[in-house]
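Example 3.2
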Amino acid sequence: MTTCSRRSILALAAGGLLLGAGCGDFGALAYFLMPEQRLDAKMKHLASEDKEKDSKVVILTWGGLETRAEFIHADRQLSEMLAQQLRKLAEDGKEKITIVPARKVEEFKNEHPNWRGMDLTEIGRRFGADYVVYLEINSLSLYEKGSLNTLLRGRISLNVTLADVKKPDDTPAQEPFSCVYPGDAPGALPADNDATKAQFRQKFLGHVARQLSYYFSRYPRGERYRMD
């Protein structure tokens, strides 16, 4: 089939959809025929659009939540999930980004117990990075309030800080972040057993990571309404 033939078929198909949909649904039809619009990053788009250049990012997370069993390594898991989301968004946008592996970041934190007192741009230079993302978790919960730990509803509050390593004299950008998952009442889920709790924690942190990725990458408009 020739290119002209394909175009003719597509044009006829679109025309048929228009006739069937009616004028009132033209906007909805145009939405489905056009590529999905991508919204700007909420803080700064980090991936490189230059095919000859890469953008390197360090993700640091601190929570101080290790005393509760359900939160062991939650900070590291959140870092890894955020890295996955940023890589996927960069790939979808045909951009380049490199995230320093969480293992190397954890090694650095273990070797420098006072790392939270260090300048973020200095930490970034030690990794040869362009940007440093720092997530400081203020509160984190898996259970619905007042349920005596029988219902699951994730809540998190944290501060998001972004440092541009190439601009050490600039004050790092900061934004508060909070999230409830699932957000719609009565969406809390029964905390039946440890396996259910572990699966819920995975989904909850994955949702948080996706929401945080919007701070550092352009993302499809429809993404901000997803809750799974």
